[in-house]
Design a protein that fits this description.
Strand content of chain B: under 5%
Shape of chain B: flat
Strand content of chain A: 35-45%
Number of strands of chain A: 19
Oligomer: heterodimer
Helix content of chain B: over 70%
Structural class of chain A: alpha+beta
Shape of chain A: globular
Structural class of chain B: mainly alpha
Number of helices of chain A: 9
Number of strands of chain B: 0
Order of helices and strands of chain A: EEEHEEEHHHHEHEHEEHHEEEEEEEEE
Order of helices and strands of chain B: HHHHHHHHHHHHHHHH
Largest interface: A-B, 24 and 17 residues
Largest sheet of chain A: 6 strands, mixed
Distance between the termini of chain A: 42 Å
Chain lengths: 354, 339
């Protein structure tokens, strides 16, 4: 069973510090929802508010339509997976998993059966009698997931649980987590500062910065149609060129920049003469006969792509990522080239109003 | 023990111990080969290493082992004037232990009820005081280690430590003033109209038990605080998130983690309590029976050192056996306590 979550105009203050500013999110039951943002953006605060360790200063959190104010973390239909997992080192794997059942007064035999079932679900059959210290990082991860699922929560909250793992394991656990979520059908709320994790696993992503949700959408929308300069530069690599809007026509915007006039899609909210930033992804920059003049400063070969660092004329740095077929190996440092892009690949966004 | 033998023991045993350590390190080096980590001597340098070993060996032997051996030896001898020591009457005997049990060196028809009762009361009350101390310290230690902000912890620590700047005897007298028939508490109770005649707290040993409890609060506090402080707060939250009520979190998460701290605090409080001397002397009522003043009396009132040694030894061994039994019961190992 899964429940929808309604975060309704929630503000959380610690003294004078506003950690979360008037955030509203509606998360559907069974959804894999990620909250993405840099550290200190308030994403963990939101998670702790949903789980009940914090009460919102203003606004309300509703789970499955029920207002959760005054309901403690031990009474909510949520289960939290901590960043450091917080497994109980003095208990066996099975005791860890069944702890939530033990406090609910479920008899030992049934607890053990449930623990073994869950261990099978997270692909760790037969490890119930091991000690926590005997497990590898990835195995601990799975035990933490099993422990949280044991209490049959309607919402599973995950606080960057993959951050301690090495890259390979992390990528493997992404698919694994997604598969487990599909199998159990519980609402997952996943907190991360890693955009790769957020984009690959989630149905929808909320991007947060300074306690405010900047944009909510599926991964493709967030990446291709960012609505704020922060989202454009935080999610994935991006080249930003700042200037003033010169003209708006046919869904395009032309801005005057130190690198010359440039055209991109109109990101909305633009006024002629107002400051704006044009964002163009490194993989959408191309060497062209006519365009922005730039000098190659460095070239980093990464296998499937080569990242070429460029200095555009007045000391403006750009990054261009080229696939194998585009002759990246010819671009040696010191070379003067011209780069350009298709206006439909770039987006022009208004400067954030303070 | 002859004087010459004792002198040899004192001056030759530290170098002997040092030699054993050196040989052990050489043997280990041989076995592990050049791959082994630098040994104790290589890490510290020969002069420092030898000083450390000799100093520790000297301390352990001269300050702890030898005096204890002396006491054990003493306790099996009869009380004799100095002139007859080492003479034909200086034989090994169990008379001192017999006196403790039966109140007479040779008659075994009656139990020495006064001393046995005091002995039992001392052990029993020390146990109760240890438990009370734990009950008092645990909530405070938990609060300081897991709940309070760092600034508040510093202030609380100071508040706990400062009273201990006052020496033990003065503190004991303060409790006398507090609990005496004309003392502060009686005055308050009478003033409030709750009682008409003052209560004899000293005679009822209330003052003694309160004083002993207070004297060892810090001894319980610090190991407990350290143990609870090292618990990852996320574990407490994880248990709460999984639905555990507060008492289960304490019983199943915090206490198992803090067990070594509880054990070391409880051991120290129990041992110190059973061996306390000043507090029972000052706070004890006229009828109070505490075992340590009796031991003291054997030495300095009866001038019967062998008997005093026997009494002290009985108390020491009883306490050690009791502590080891309790540790067994709670499955704590000695190395955990020393952590």
């Amino acid at each position: 069973m899964s429940a929808d979550i309604d975060i309704d105009n929630v503000t959380i203050r610690f003294g004078d510090f506003v950690a979360v500013k008037d955030v509203s999110l509606k998360i559907a039951g069974g959804e894999f929802f990620s909250i993405l943002g840099p550290s200190g953006c308030g994403k963990t605060t939101i998670l702790r508010t949903i789980s009940g360790f914090l009460e919102p200063t203003l606004g309300a959190v509703r789970i499955g339509g029920k207002d959760m104010s005054g309901v403690g973390p031990n009474k909510r239909p949520t289960a939290l997976i901590f960043q450091n997992l917080a497994l109980f080192p003095l208990m066996s794997v099975a005791d860890n998993i069944s702890y939530g059942l033990k406090v609910r007064g479920i008899p030992a035999k049934e607890r053990r059966r449930k623990a073994d079932d869950l261990l099978a679900l997270v692909a760790l059959p037969g490890t119930g009698d091991k000690k926590i210290g005997e497990l590898s990082g990835g195995q601990k991860q799975r035990v933490a997931i099993a422990r949280a699922l044991a209490v049959e929560p309607q919402v599973l909250l995950l606080d960057e649980p993959l951050s301690a793992l090495d890259l390979r394991l992390r990528q493997h656990m992404r698919t694994e987590l997604r598969a487990i979520q599909r199998r159990v059908g519980v609402t997952f709320i996943y907190i991360t500062h890693d955009q790769g994790e957020a984009l690959t696993m989630s149905d929808r992503v909320a991007v947060m910065n300074h306690g405010v949700v900047e944009q909510v959408g599926d991964g493709r929308t967030i990446y291709d149609l960012p609505t704020t300069p922060f989202v454009a530069s935080f999610v994935g690599e991006n080249n930003g060129v700042t200037g003033r809007v010169r003209a708006l026509f046919d869904g395009l915007a032309e801005i005057e920049t130190p690198l010359g006039p440039m055209k991109g899609r109109d990101g909305g909210g633009l006024d002629v003469g107002a400051p704006a930033t044009l964002f163009i992804r490194p993989e959408q920059l191309r060497p062209e006969a006519d365009g922005v003049r730039a000098r190659v400063t460095a070239s980093a070969f990464e296998g499937h792509v080569t990242h070429v660092r460029l200095d555009a004329e007045p000391g403006h740095k750009l990054v261009m990522s080229l696939g194998r077929d585009l002759g990246a190996h010819l671009l040696t440092p010191g070379l003067e080239i011209c780069v350009g892009f298709a206006p439909l690949d770039a987006i022009v966004l208004a400067q954030a109003r303070a | 023990m002859s004087n010459a033998f004792t002198a040899y023991l004192i001056f030759l045993s530290p170098p002997a111990v040092a030699l054993v350590f050196v040989l052990m390190s050489i043997a280990e080096r041989r076995r592990a080969g050049a791959l082994a980590e630098p040994g104790f001597f290589a890490r510290n340098g020969w002069p420092v290493a030898i000083f450390l070993i000799v100093a520790v060996a000297f301390w352990a032997l001269v300050m702890i082992v030898l005096p204890s051996l002396y006491m054990i030896d003493y306790s099996f001898h009869p009380k004799l004037p100095p002139s007859q020591r080492g003479g034909p009457k200086d034989i090994y005997t169990l008379a001192n232990y017999r006196y403790f049990l039966f109140g007479s060196p040779d008659d075994t028809s009656h139990w020495n009820s006064t001393h046995l009762y005091a002995f039992w009361i001392t052990i029993f009350v020390s146990m109760i005081i240890t438990v009370v101390n734990f009950a008092v310290c645990y909530p405070l230690a938990y609060f300081m280690a897991q709940v309070a902000r760092p600034g508040a912890v510093t202030r609380l620590m100071l508040l706990l430590v400062i009273p201990y700047w006052i020496n033990e005897i003065l503190r004991a007298f303060a409790f006398r003033v507090l609990f005496g028939t004309g003392g502060v508490i009686n005055a308050m109770l009478i003033g409030a109209g709750l009682i008409h005649d003052p209560i004899d707290f000293l005679g009822a040993d209330v003052a003694l038990y309160a004083g002993l409890t207070y004297a060892y609060v810090l001894i319980m506090m610090f190991p407990l605080y350290n143990a609870i402080e090292s618990l990852d707060h996320n574990q407490i939250e994880a248990a709460r998130d999984l639905g555990a009520p507060w008492w289960r979190i304490h019983a199943e998460i915090v206490l198992p983690h803090a067990k070594p701290g509880v054990a070391s605090g409880a051991t120290l409080v129990f041992m110190l309590c059973a061996g306390a001397l000043a507090a029972p002397l000052i706070l004890g009522g006229p009828k109070t029976l505490w075992f340590t003043p009796i031991v003291y009396d054997r030495f300095f009132q009866a001038f019967n050192w062998p008997q005093g040694a026997a009494y002290a030894l009985v108390l020491l061994i009883a306490c050690m056996v009791f502590v080891l039994l309790v540790m067994r019961l709670f499955r704590v190992s000695l190395s955990e306590i020393a952590r």
